[in-house]
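TL;DR need structure tokens for one chain.
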Amino acid sequence: MKNGLNSFNKAVSLCLIITLVFSISIFSSCAVKPYDSPQMQNTEQATIVITSTPAPATPTPTDEPTPTIEPTATPRSGPQVVGIYVSGSGGRVLLTEYKTNWNRGEDIATFNTFASNEPLLNYAKYREMLVKEWFSYPDAKDYKIGYTLSYTLYSGEEFSITIRKPSDVQHTEYLEVYLYDSVQQSANAGWYTHLADENIDDETLLYSFKLTPGVKIKEVEKIKLEAFVYKYMDESDFDETTGEYIGTVSYEIDIVRR
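>> reply
TL;DR here they are.
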């Protein structure tokens, strides 16, 4: 009996030992190895940076500059063209230049101003021609004729005179100027003389411009003559400081010494 008990005890002990060994083996296989721990992994791994691409920005609209509105010019219904003429073959001839002698005591020329740029105006009664050309424009009665006489001396000195009435004429020792209203003054088809300031009225039109050498004509090298159209009693066609014509209806010729 004693031997049977001893055998039983040995068997039990053996079973306990086997069970213990099996349990230790299972525990060891499930344990995390030290080098598998995240804290123990290689810290020199490359850092991956994820950059999100921003959504395209909506451009801010650029403010367009406000356009400058130019003032509207006052409508003009007077003569739109003007030309300087002299009597020639077949009628009144439009000039670009006029060449003649400049001798003291002899007129250089009498120039006629028409509201036209036609190369040739056929002969007709002079007064009728002037009236027809000028008053073919609406409101022509509100507009006048003026002149700019420019000349240069051999010394290089230059002069420019704006002429709207006889008293505007200056430096007559170089050039003498005589103005005529060839419509009103020739109404009786008789002799008429040049205008003075007291002869000027609302209806006067300086259709004719006579140029004569002055006593110092030998000192003059170049001459230019400009005829222009301006609105009566309206200074917008003239520079406020110099008084020079700055309007848009004008015509200029060169007067050349032969």
